[in-house]
Amino acid sequence: xxxxxSDLFPSxxxxxxxxIMSFDATFWDYLSPYQKDLIREGSFLYxxxxxxxxxxxxxxxxxxxxxxxxxxxxxxQFLLDIGLITQTQYKSDHIRLGLLLCPDLPKYDERSVYDxxxxxxxxELADAMWLTWKYCRNQVFHYYxxxxxxxxxxRAKGRIQMILMTINSCYxxxxxxHSDNKSNTDHDRATNSNIL
Length: 196
Description:
The protein is mainly alpha-helical. It is built from 10 helices and no strands. The longest helix has 21 residues, at 153-173.
């Protein structure tokens, strides 16, 4: 299995590494190679900015981007593996994870992943998945003319930790084993090899 080394994380502060190492030992193995690369690269970027940057940014959202992208990939993989989305949805360029995870989607709507997770595994996990999507992906990626929603370095680190902790909670709470990882498919590998 792949090793998640502490060298991947900032030398002055191993908090991100400690966060991952506190998780189920098979958490890292469950992630696809591309998701692991995003986390490694995000960690490198975090280290470079924290230790070596001579510039104070107005918005450190860019540090969260690789982790948010890994979270999105994880969610698609995870939802496929537990049977909440189909292989067709997994491969689709049009799937809207935010819509599926949103607690405001009517309960009778069969697309509601939030309600199915809340009813089978508890509202706490469903809320964590939704709030992580909302604060660590949507609000980080989108531009709001009336409110920049800029985040400082401390908040960026908090968002990164939130993503990692939610991934672990999903993995642990729904007891996905590495042997059940069905979505590291030829499609996934082909997508990873054709990244622009």
